[in-house]
Specification:
There is one protein chain. The protein is of the alpha/beta class and 296 residues long. The chain has a single domain (13-251), classed as Rossmann fold. The chain is built from 8 helices and 11 strands. The two termini are 38 Å apart. It has helices spanning 13-23, 71-87, 102-111, 129-145, 167-175, 229-235, 245-248, 278-292; strands at 36-41, 44-46, 67-69, 89-97, 115-120, 152-156, 179-188, 193-198, 204-209, 213-217, 240-243.
Length: 296
């Protein structure tokens, strides 16, 4: 169901000031204009087939791996571009991470995004979902102070590395916006949008939402496009605004989630012979399959 809870009056000042500055006012998309402005949150993650090695502390992987765009975020970008092509408008992409994460933004610009925002600092990699959402929210507030108003904010359903599936819904809570998750279809209506949510066992749910709103996009909602040669060339000239850690530091607190230890499962082999009459061996085998291996 769409989320409608607003931050309380005693919430941190930057949340309240954002709402008071008009983000909850009627979207320009609803005021007779076909122009739609969409913000897409993206993340750079390790490649799926990259050989992973743990850092010395055993709390995360080493940095010397290959990276790629988080797959659900790629589908979120594609859906944003399709909505832009259908209604005209602007697509803005944002990411948080070290300098290498700018590659994610360049790829998005090459595919058709209009401009980018990079929260650039290696420290962003270590943030949990809550603080990542707070940092992105602070950057959105800065855009709001510049007169920007987004009709829709897209995130991927989850990241391929942590897999928390929390950043999008926490972002909606912080901004006081309605949200819906696992989105498979988006249609504009007179009062806002109607979205199709994927549920379990092949079921779907249709939800009507006012604008502005936050949506977490499911992989497979569309077919991804490739960047064209001209798009790659144009991406070099499109604006990318950098946001330092210091600019959003006041919005970030201590992590509420922490990975204590990662480990690679140890491979081992153990051969056990079951001896005795056939009936007794069969009984022992069934007991092991049932009680030790739990396959029956």
């Amino acid at each position: 169901m769409p989320h409608a809870n607003l931050p309380q009056a005693n919430a941190s000042g930057w949340i309240c000031s954002f709402i008071l500055m008009g983000f909850t006012s009627a979207s320009c998309w609803l005021q007779g204009s076909r122009f739609v402005k969409i913000l897409v949150c993206m993340k750079q993650v390790p490649q799926k087939d990259a050989p992973l090695k743990l850092n010395e502390a055993g709390t995360w992987i080493r940095e010397d791996v290959s990276y790629e765009v988080n797959e659900p975020d790629a589908f979120a970008l594609e859906e944003a571009l399709r909505q832009k092509e259908k209604h005209t408008g602007e697509v803005v992409v944002v990411t948080a991470g070290p300098a290498r994460a700018s590659q994610v933004l360049r790829e998005a610009l090459a595919k058709g995004a209009d401009r980018a925002i990079h929260l650039e600092d290696p420290a962003f990699v270590g943030l949990d979902a809550y603080n990542t959402a707070r940092a992105i929210a602070a950057a959105i507030i800065a855009e709001q102070n510049r007169g920007e108003k987004f009709d829709l904010i897209f995130t991927g359903l989850q990241s391929d590395d942590y897999g928390y599936a929390q950043t999008g819904v926490i972002l909606a809570q912080i901004l006081g916006l309605p949200h819906a998750t696992i989105i498979m279809q988006i249609e504009k209506t007179d009062s806002g949008i109607r979205v199709k949510r994927e549920l379990e066992a092949g079921f779907f749910q249709f939800v009507d939402l006012p604008l502005p709103a936050v949506l977490t996009i499911q992989s497979g909602i569309n077919k991804l496009r490739y960047a064209t040669l001209i798009g790659i060339k144009q991406a070099k000239t499109k604006p990318m605004r950098k946001v330092t850690l210091g600019e959003v530091q006041s919005a970030i607190g201590g992590n509420l989630q922490k990975i204590e230890k990662l480990y690679v499962p140890q491979k081992s082999k153990n051969t056990e012979f079951l001896e005795g009459p056939p009936a007794e061996v069969a009984k022992k085998l069934v007991e092991k399959l049932k009680n030790e291996l739990r396959v029956i």
